[in-house]
Design brief:
It is a single chain. This protein is mainly α and 400 residues long. The chain has one domain. The chain starts with a helix and ends in a 27-residue tail after the last helix. The chain contains 15 helices and no strands.
Length: 400
Amino acid sequence: MSKYVDVIYAAIIVSMTVTFFWTGTAGAIVQGTVVALLLPIYIQLMLRRMRPGVLLQLLYVPVGYTMIALISTLINIENYVEDGVVMAVVVSLNVAFMLFTASLIASDSDPHLPERVLRWCGVLMLGFLLYALATLEHATDGDRFTTEHTHPNWWGMLCFGVTCCSLFYRRKRALFVISNVVSVFMMYLAQSRGAMAGVAVALLLYGLIAGAQSAARRPGLVIGTTLGGIGVLSLGLIGFNWSKVESIVLDFLYEDVLFLHDENRGLESGLTGRVDAWIDAWEIWLENPLLGTGFGTNSDVHNGFLIIGSEGGLVYFLFVLALLAAGIKRAGQRQPALLATLVGYMVLIMTYPRSINLNFGAIVFEVALLAAISRKGVSPGFRSEASGALTRSGEPSAVP
C-alpha cells in the first residue's frame, strides 16, 4: 500500500468531485467527506509515514480555521434560517477535515508526496473531463456548458485545478499539453472567465520562472531560441498584415471570451450584477468588521476575498492572508508549480463565489498551500521538483 499511497489520496480527492457531479447535491458530498477523509488518517497511522514535527507545524491551519468558523457562525446564529446553521457547521468541519488531510499529505515522510498526489489528481480528472466532453450535452441557457446538477463555473473551477495539476508533470510534455488544451476548451465552452484569468496567470507565472531556471542552466539554448524567434518575427513583420490579425484576436477575446459588450454579462450589466454585490459585501464587512456575519451567509458574492471578509471578518481575512503570504514566501522560485497554483487561485476567486471549500480547484489549492508552507521542513537530501524528485533510496519516483 505504501507504494500506491499517492494514488489512494488522489482517488479520494477525485471521488469527492465525481460524487457531487453524479448526485447534484451539496448534502451528499458534505455527508460523505468525513467518511472519505478518515482513510488518509488510517493510511498515515498504519504506514507510519508522517513527520510528526512537520505535522505539528501545520496543524494550526485546520485548527485555526475550525475555531474561526465555529465562533463566527455561533455568534451570528440569528443570521441563519431553519437548518442553515447546522449546514454551515458541517460544511466548515468538512473543510477543516480537508485542510487536515492536506496537512497529512504535506507532512509525509516523502516531502514530494503532495506533488505526486496532484499529478495523479490531474490524470484522473483529465479522464473525467474527456468523458464529459464525449458524452454530455450542452445546456441551452446562454449556450454555456453545464449539466443538470452543475453550474458552468463549477466546470471552470474544476478545469483550473486540472491545469494546476499539470504544472507538476515535469517532463511529461504531451500530457501537459493535452491537459491544458482540454481544460481551456472546456472553460471556453462554459464561458468561465474567472477560471480563464486564473489559468492564464498561473501558466504565465510558471513559464516565466521555469524559463528563468532554464536560462540559468542552459543559457546557450535560450539565447539561440530567442534569436531564432526574433528572426522569424522580423520576417513576418515584413510582409504580413498584423493589424488585421490583431483586430481578429482582440474581437474574439472581447466578444467571445470576456463578453465585455454582452447585454447580460458585459460591462453595462455591472458584470451580471456582480459589482452591486461587491459593494453590498463590502458594506456588510464594514458593519461586522471583526467576525463577519457567519460562514455561508454571503456565498453568492462573486469575490472570494469579500466572502472571507464579510462572513468571517477581519480575523478570518488576516488568517487567510497570513497563510497565503507564508505559502508564497516558502514556495518562491524553487517551487514554480506551487507558487503558480497559489497566485492563480488568488486571481480566480476575485470573480468567483468561492474561497476555501471542497471544490476540486479549491482542494488543489489547499494541498499546494500546505505543501508550500511545509517547505521549511523539507529534507536537503531531496531534489527540488525542477530537477526531478528522488526517493530516499536515490531512485526516481515512478509517478506520472
